[in-house]
Request: fold
Amino acid sequence: MRTEPIQFLETQRVPDGAGGFTGAQEVMHTTHGTFEPLKGSRDLAGNQVRLKQAYKLTIWANPAYTVKAGTLVSVAGVRATVQQLRYLDAMRRRLEIIAVENG
Reply:
């Protein structure tokens, strides 16, 4: 396990200059935590088999920002989507996050 800076991103609507809107990813919260790969899982799409890498992140929970399923995470050059959340203690201070790599 290694400690890495972890960024949580959300898509925000921004004007595209032509009267419409486009989505831009904005960093909503940055923290440090442990980051480790888990076993890959297979995604059967038609005749193709794609391996998706899952990661386990452990962070100190911050009451100023609530992590939720579907949030985009960027850590060590990897972008992944939060799939599961679990508090590791009764005081809800340590948070374990399972995220699956996008792509």
Remarks:
- The longest strand covers residues 21-37.
- The domain at 2-14+23-101 is CATH 2.40.10.270 (Thrombin, subunit H).
